[in-house]
Amino acid sequence: MINTLLVPDLNIDIKKEILENEYHIPMDDGLGKELELMCNVSDYVWEYAYENGMEAGMEAGMKVGREAGRADAVYEIVRELLKDGTVGEDFIIRVTQISTEKLNEIKALL
Q1: Distance from CA of residue 76 to its chain's centroid?
Q2: Cα torsion angle, 85, 86, 88, 94, sign
Q3: What is the C-alpha to C-alpha distance for residues 32 and 14, in angstroms, rounded to an integer?
Q4: Sign of dihedral through CA atoms 60, 64, 67, 69?
Q5: Higher-confidence position of 19 and 108
Q6: Contact, 19 vs 4, CB < 8 A?
Q7: What whole-number distance in Å separates Cα of residue 29 and Cα of residue 63?
């Protein structure tokens, strides 16, 4: 019965019909109005959770995107500095804050 009340895809009229026919609960004005209120509350909870989930997902996605963008920019800078050859590897590591291993990975790709 609780499942019937909380399923967001069923409209209120179908819920009333199920409660009357399957559970033999009369949907007079009092219970019908309470059911409508419960459905409105569950809709509100669902919308609230959906909106907050979307917001959290977007923030996480933007963070990942910024980090990927920074990694791409650092890669390009390191690649250009290595190709140019005017600065040493220690300088590149210190300025770009990458590890020696990462520097070696980029060098291997040149």
Answers
A1: 29
A2: negative
A3: 12
A4: negative
A5: 108
A6: yes
A7: 51
Tens of pLDDT, residue by residue over 95-104, are 999 999 999 9
C-alpha span between 36 and 16 (Å, rounded): 9
CB atoms closer than 10 angstroms to residue 68: 10
pLDDT tens sequence across 2-11: 777 777 778 8
The one-letter amino acid at 6: L
Amino acid at 106: I
Within 10 Å of residue 92's Cβ, how many Cβ atoms? 18
- 86 secondary structure, DSSP code: S
Task: Quote the tokens at residue 32.
Answer: 């019908």
Quick one: 16 exposed, middle or buried, by C-beta within 10 A (0-12, 13-18, 19+)?
buried
| pLDDT higher than 90, residue 91 | yes
Q: What is the mean pLDDT of residues 75-91?
A: 93
CA-based R_g, the chain, Å? 30
Percentage of residues in the chain with pLDDT exceeding 70?
98
What is d(CA 82, CA 60) in angstroms, rounded to the nearest whole number? 33
